[in-house]
């Protein structure tokens, strides 16, 4: 005589199946946003605003550098230190050194092409190989025992990304394929009621975490931006153009202050020499 099944077991199993499906859908939506929709939205945003934003970054850094020069010079004046042309040149040199790395980073970011993939450094090369091996184990028929739909859909993309040393694309593929494998439903569920209850609680906790992560992503740019709204695009361009005008005004003001200070130093030097 077979033992009577526990009355709660089937209900718990149904709950497990429901949670696995909800978890799978949540993760897939997150990965779709991260790996497919994000590049498209980012490209759309850059088409509208990248030129203005690059100009704004350049002018903002230029204004900050001029402001820093004035700050140091005014500090010296308040201390009563003599103001000479050597002082002006020294402050300009010091500030240029302070800002040199910022300028390098800005120029590197602006010169980087979105589809150009240079030879990675040793750390990136190691990560590239690690991700490639991880994807091979996840996809290749020799590793999984059969030719899967994922293999037919993504294998050529994996090979192309590895050959082009496209670390970002390999990271996206690993996130998409390996994360999906992690959330797949196991072949067997716990049989004991208490173990099954614990498993359900763990799935509920993980689903809550994944749903929160998805909501945070939706609230971030560019997902939260109305990039298909012409009026918003026009308004955003006007905002950036207004910021550009303000930066240009700041640069003109700081430059005029520095010019007056240099003229004062020259006049003081000519008087003292006579």
Topology:
Elements: H1 9-78, H2 85-111, H3 122-139, H4 141-144, H5 149-163, H6 167-182, H7 193-218, H8 230-273
Helix pairs in contact: 1-2, 1-6, 1-7, 1-8, 3-5, 3-6, 5-6
Description:
This protein has 274 residues and is mainly α. The chain has helices at 9-78, 85-111, 122-139, 141-144, 149-163, 167-182, 193-218, 230-273. It has two domains: 29-111 and 229-274, no CATH class; 121-187, no CATH class. The chain starts with 8 loop residues before the first helix and ends with a helix.
SSE pattern, N- to C-terminal: HHHHHHHH
Mean pLDDT: 85
Total E-strand runs: 0
Shape: elongated
Low-pLDDT stretches: none
Number of domains: 2
Supply the helix-strand structural class. mainly alpha
Q: How far apart lie the N and C ends? A: 120 Å
Short description:
By secondary structure, this protein is mainly α. 80% of the residues lie in helices and 0% in strands. The chain starts with 8 loop residues before the first helix and ends with a helix.
What are the main properties of this structure?
about 270 residues; mainly alpha; 2 domains; 8 helices; about 80% helix; elongated
